[in-house]
Amino acid sequence: MRVFIETYGCTLNQADSEIIRGVLAGRDIELCKEEKEADVVVLNTCFVKTQTQQSIIDRLKKLSGKKLVVAGCMPAANREMVEEFSPQASLVGPYSLSHIADAVVAAYGNEKKVFLDIEKDDKFSLPKIRAGVVARIPLSEGCNSCCSFCVTKLARPVLRSYAEDSIIKEIENCVKAGFREIQLTSMDTGAYGIDTKTSLPSLLKKIGRIDYKFLTRVGMINPEHALRMLPELIDAFRSDKVYKFLHLPLQSGDDHVLKDMNRRYSVSEFMQVVGEFRRQFPELTLATDIIVGFPTESEEAFQRAVDVIKELKPDVVNNSKFFPRPGTKAASMKRLPNETVNDRSRVMNSLCKKISLEKNKKFIGKKFEILLTEHRGEGMAGRSRNYKQVVVKGGQLGEFINTTICDSTACYLKGII
Fold first, then answer.
1. In terms of residue numbers, what domain contains 104?
2. In the prediction, which pLDDT does 41 show?
3. pTM over cut 0.90
């Protein structure tokens, strides 16, 4: 039996696909690189955005004649939607990956099996197949927030942090095997340990004591958690094994909108966290998220968001237009006109691109040590210690090299070895 795996969504989903590959290979199921070669197709789905949802629905329609397993967040959050377009597909939720081979075997035999319960799978005990030099390590499932716009909470509702010892052992095994970038991933890495009486700073300090040369990217931290443990978090970031990269989602520059989003921080508290990080790490790369067109976002509230971004000058902004997600509180709110949302999105995109380009130009002439993490055309792409992407010609995957920045775009830097 041959299986093709197609993955949508975040780093956490990519880590789950590594488990899916490992579990299937452990059952002597052949993994293939092209859908046309496969007897069964596994879609590991995302459900966070309407555009992604539509892309997956289009795929379900196209794969209607295929034997299919739909895994991930979409069947967990909205089983009915999946079954509308693919009623015979077997279903596997993100908490039940140990059953993925059973679902594939069932689909191959024209049966349907459903594994959507919230189970206590220990993902570190499950086999994985990784590639390249980047290892994605999940810290937890779920989060302890309840944002009014977020549908992912329906798919991964329970915060369950994995044991520090299991995470450390997994990272040690990865770096021994040649992985040089460790991506710590979760719905909210800042919530890690709340349920197990530990914390992200505690984990980072233990990672820093692992005796290999590698770099760790910390995934998204919600601002309320960063504020709660700010001194300890900054101290943990001092490690030379941690990228000086902070993904802190703002979502809105207006306190009233943040309240309607059920976000648990104010704009001033957000700025406090960023200000302290930048004082300690002057070349910090800051990534943030913005939602434009939230139902209660007035023109004045949007302008405040623009003003905050101008003051904040983030390096990277994930700018999203609001779309109501089924089952969320925000879905029942009266939407703004599409034209208004589209206009605001264009303004925000233009501003963020301008800021990113201006910030990247300041690195021209500087020298960096970078870790080469991927092939890019005829060259290589890597990351500096502040997680700026640098494109160079030459070098080997997983190699640390010195480079001088000679040019820049809004998205990456160009270096000379």
1. 2-115
2. 98
3. yes
